[in-house]
Structure formats: C-alpha cells, structure tokens
Amino acid sequence: MTEPVLSAKNLTKRYGKVTALDHCDFELYPGEILAVIGDNGAGKSTLIKALSGAVTADEGEIYIEGRQVQFTSPNDGRVAGIETVYQTLAMSPALSITDNMFMGREIRKKGFMGKYLRQLDRAAMEDFARQKLSDLGLMTIQNISQPVETLSGGQRQGVAVARAAAFGSKVIILDEPTAALGVKESRRVLELIQDVKKRGIPIILISHNMPHVFELADRIHVHRLGRRLCVIDPKKYSMSDAVAFMTGAKEPDEPRAA
Amino acid sequence: MSHDDSYEDVVKTRREESFAAFESGGKGLLHKVHDLLHGNPALVPLIVLLVSIVVFGLLLGSRFFSPFALTLILQQVQIVGIVAAAQSLIILTAGIDLSVGAITVISSVVMGQFAFRYGIPPSISVICGLAFGTLCGALNGLLVSKMKLPPFIVTLGTWQIILASNYLYSRNETIRSQEIEASAPILQFMGTRFEIFGAVFTIGVVFMILLMLCLAWALKNTAWGRHVYAIGDDADAAALSGVNVHRTLMSVYMLGGLICGFAGWALIGRLGSVSPTSAYEANIESITAVVIGGISLFGGRGSILGALFGALIVGVFSLGLRLLGADAQWTYFFIGVLIIVAVAVDQWIRKVSA
C-alpha cells in the first residue's frame, strides 16, 4: 500500500480526568476523502485538533509523509501544509474576505514601504483571493473587500473552504462543513469538496450527516470512545451498519484497518 | 448499498443559482447611508464635530470661530486626545484600560523626579518616564494575555496600584514650573508654542495629530493592524486562523503604555509643572472620547480617527458652552447624551441589514 500522507500513532489527550483520545491511530492516504464519524463526545474534534495543531497531544506521534512532526500551534500545522476549516469557520466577521483569507500570512509590499513600514500589498492579496474564489466556481464576486458578516452561511463556508484550498498543500480538514447549512447550500459545499478532491488534495471530513458521508467518502474512520474502532468501506457497509458501529450497537467483525 | 434513501437527489443537479454572487446597489437611501457608515465608522463623529463647530460658530460668532479659539480647543484636548489613542487600540482588541490616566501621571512624575531628585540628565529622565509607561502597559498586557484575566478587572486593579504608587513615590510634591524652566526645559518641550496666522499650536498638539494619523495608517495597512481588529472581533477565531494573539495583545498594551508616557510628557508641557494630582480623570475622559468617536466597546469595529473627533467634540462643547456663559454642568449633560446616542448609532451600524 502507498505511504499515508498523514498518519498518527497512539495519540492520547487527557483533559483532567477525561480521556478524549485513548491511544488512537489514524491514516490518511493520498487523494482520498476520509470521513471521520463518531457519536458526540467520541473525541473526533480532539483528534482533528491534534492533527491540525490546535491542541498538542500528551502522547503519540504524528507523521507527514513518513516524517515525524511536532505541532504546538495551529500555525505549525499550516506551515506543514495542513489547512483546517473549523465548524465555527474561524473568521472575523467585521473584516473583509481578503483580510480573512490572508489572516496570519499577509503579503507585504516590496521595497521600502513593505520592508520598513510593513505595508500590506492589498492589490496582490485581492487578486489572489479573487482568483481562488473563481477557481472554485464561487461566482462573480463583485466586492472582494466586503465584510464577511454580509455573506450568507453558505457563502462564508465557501470562503472558508476556498481559504483552505488555496493554502492547503498536503491535507484539508473539514469539520462539519454542512452542519449549519440548508439543503441547497450543503449541496453546493459538497460539490466544492469534490472539486477540491479532484485537485489531488486529500480531505478529512468530519460529519454527522450519513448520506453526505456515504456519498463523498472513500473510506470511513469510525471513532468510538477516544479511539479508532474500525475503518469501513462505504460500498460494503450500509449507513445503519455505520451508525451501529459508532454507537456500539454492533461490533465490527474484522480487525482494525480496512 | 450506500444510498438507503436518496432524498437529496432533487437538488443534486447543479443549477446556477448564484450561490455566492454578491448583490449590490438597488436599495433605499437609508440602506446607502447604512452601508456608507458601515464602511466608514469615523464619519458620524466627523459630521457631529463639524455641525457642532458650525452651530457654536453661529451662536458665538468670531469669539468662537477664530483660529485662536479653535486651536485653543486642540490644546485643551491634547492630553485626552493622546490618551484616547492608547485607549482606542486597547478597546479595538475588545479590552478596556482604566489605568491610562494613572500611567500618564506616573510617567510625568517619573520624568520630573528622576531629573530633580536623582539629578539624572533631563533627556534621560524623559526616556525613563516613557520606558516606565511602557512597563506599566506590559504589566497590564501580561495579566490580560497570559493570566487571561478580564481587562476591566486587571486595569481596575492596576489603576489603583499605579495611582497610589504615584502619590507615595512623589510624596505628593509638585515640581514647580520655574524650576523646570531653569534646569530641565526639555520636560516642557511638548508645550513649545508656535503661531501660524493667529492659530496657536504646541508640539503636543502636533504630536497628537501625527500619532493619530500614524496609528490609523498602521491599523489599516499592516498585518499588525488587521490582527488587532481580528482579535477584537473574535479572539478564538483569530488564534485558529494563525494570529499570535499573545504577542499582538502584548504589543497593544505596551504601545498603549508608551503612548500614555508621551501623554505624561505632554502633560508637563501643558501644565508647566509636574503635578501628581493631575490627569487622573483621563481614563474616563478617554473612554468618553473613544465611545463618542464611534469605536465599539465590544471591540473590532471603529476607526481610531473617530477617537480624535470624539475628543474634539468634547472640547468644542466645553469651550462653546463656557463662552455662552452656561453652567459647566451642561457640558457633562450633553456629553452624556452624546455617549448614549453614539452607542445607539453603533448598534444600528453593527446590524448587517438595516
């Protein structure tokens, strides 16, 4: 089998007496969409936060393309090429689309103004943002400098996905991308995810929505009680099987890993 | 069997339904005004400022509407204006600083006492005063950013601590103007006057205006400025999208302290003397200027130039009403009204769809 793009061994994270991750393993292979499902409190969010650098695991190792990495902040993950779209989207509503896309990695002007006065190169950033949004078919954005708060939920999600797709060179993590959206808006975001996949970037998708998971995922990582219960192939199992594994109503008949 | 129920099939065909098209225009006048104000939050205080100048000018004629009187306002608001610059930065990060007045006084006292009690060269004393202001700001910053204490509580505490230290350290002594003039004139440098066609300016006034312009530029055009706004908007989101929240907050509080140090220097220029009992109300006055200037107390919104306009509005009202012979309480009365109106306008602007 090919080498995983992103993998983790024995990840453990405790919050006081609560063990959110209990020696959890994880693998993501090139070009795939891996769904992570699990009941509330199973530790999905902690898992993806550990993978993206937003939390640091107490034990265990994370590897990117076989090389071990240590993340202590979300920025470490980003530098390594892992972009995350958080459920809360992590955007500043009062700032513009461009400002949000470049938050924390702004482009400075060349020459004196940029080097000594640290002036931002707004034109370059706007061009880039416009380019990325239209790459993903996010239509004719007339005013790239309008504040994010003036956008609808689906548009914000679109901008967040475009931000991740623009900068994520290795892995994109999507946490509940359709949870807050209407049916049509979700549909559009799912198409967006497939567009991103076609560019060859592997995606980790966390979702509660079984039809969406079964439609998009190549493999499904079932998370239960802080660890990986099994990885299933959506073509071989039904949604009710997946729910049964996830809630503990049914035990997987094969050993871990699919 | 992967699709037990394909209830979403009806919406699967991709229809160009302008999913993310951004409409603009074609709205009523109120909408246009709303959009304009949303984009330019300093516009409201600017209009209020200009209208109040015109009204007082019509009522008082040349007694008010003269270069001398108008620049007198600038001199009267310079301390509050400089402090309001520091306050604006902190409020933009969704904080508040009650200790700015205390930092201002103690910086001026440090400058004076270092020069007169220890005989340190006056120019070095000024640098020590500025450094001390920065240090006070750093203390606030550490408590807010590292200890995660609410800024209101932190600065409520440091306000008392710094003000008490100020009285204890200075032994409540005032250093008289003549002494400063004779042996340490650099302490009064910010009070240096110059006249252009009857308009009287001081270095302190020029400093206030330049400071505001520089900060306004930096907030708009540097990554640091964008980060200040992002933290005020939503600190967790900013941290997740890669902003170093701790470093940015520290820089804001330390810069705030440094600016208060400069305000302390300007205070000596304005009074001529070093008095440990002056400027202690600058905290409330600066918050007033910031609020009237349209900067949101909830952080992340507003323009720092608004705070300058806010300070000037207060100055125009107090001079105008004094020249009209009104009781000084009327000034406070109208300032109170303005504060409430400003916050109401802020709430309206915040709403995305009016």
UniProtKB/TrEMBL annotation, chain A:
- InterPro entries on file: AAA+_ATPase, ABC_carbohydrate_import_ATPase, ABC_transporter-like_ATP-bd, P-loop_NTPase
This protein's record includes keyword ATP-binding? yes
Which Pfam family is one of this chain's hits? ABC_tran
By its UniProt entry, which Gene3D superfamilies does this protein fall under? P-loop containing nucleotide triphosphate hydrolases (3.40.50.300)
Write down the PROSITE patterns for this protein, in alphabetical order.
ABC_TRANSPORTER_2
Q: Which residues form a coiled coil?
A: none
Sorted UniProt keywords: ATP-binding, Nucleotide-binding
Question: What residue intervals traverse the membrane?
Answer: none
GO MF terms listed in the record are: ATP binding; ATP hydrolysis activity
Q: Which residues form the ABC transporter domain?
A: 6-250
Q: What is this protein called?
A: Mannose ABC transporter ATP-binding protein /fructose ABC transporter ATP-binding protein /ribose ABC transporter ATP-binding protein
TrEMBL record, chain B:
Q: Which Pfam families match?
A: BPD_transp_2 (PF02653)
Q: Which UniProt keywords apply?
A: Cell membrane, Membrane, Transmembrane, Transmembrane helix
Q: How does it sit in the membrane?
A: Multi-pass membrane protein
Subcellular localization, per the record?
Cell membrane
Q: What is its main location?
A: membrane
Q: Which GO terms describe its molecular function?
A: transmembrane transporter activity
Bilayer-crossing residues are 42-61, 68-92, 98-116, 123-143, 149-169, 196-219, 250-268, 330-349
Question: What InterPro entries does the record point to?
Answer: ABC_transp_permease
GO terms for cellular component: plasma membrane
Q: Which PANTHER family match?
A: ABC TRANSPORTER PERMEASE PROTEIN YPHD-RELATED-RELATED
- The entry's protein name is Fructose transport system permease protein
Q: Give the originating organism.
A: Palleronia aestuarii
